[in-house]
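Shipment paperwork, digital attachment
Item: protein structure file
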Amino acid sequence: MVTAIVHINAEVDRIPEIAQTIAEIDGVSEVYSITGEYDLLAMVRVPAYEQIAEVVPGRINKVPGVLHTETHVAFRAYSRHDLDAAFSIGLSEAD
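Attachment content:
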């Protein structure tokens, strides 16, 4: 699984509807409204690196009201949730 973090500048008066439209795109797992330089943050999770191009410039950038995006690709996950999931692969409830 490839994870990309996408910072998005959007038309301010349309942020809720833009966020909802982005959240409905296949490959987008979450969208957050955030403070700071950017208006929205989208988490993109796809099986293959090449699919990031389909989701970000192919879909997110084409949403009306999206003004600019900046994409960061994650190399490795270190969250407790991800580590617990990795170690539980292949275990049944009986284990």
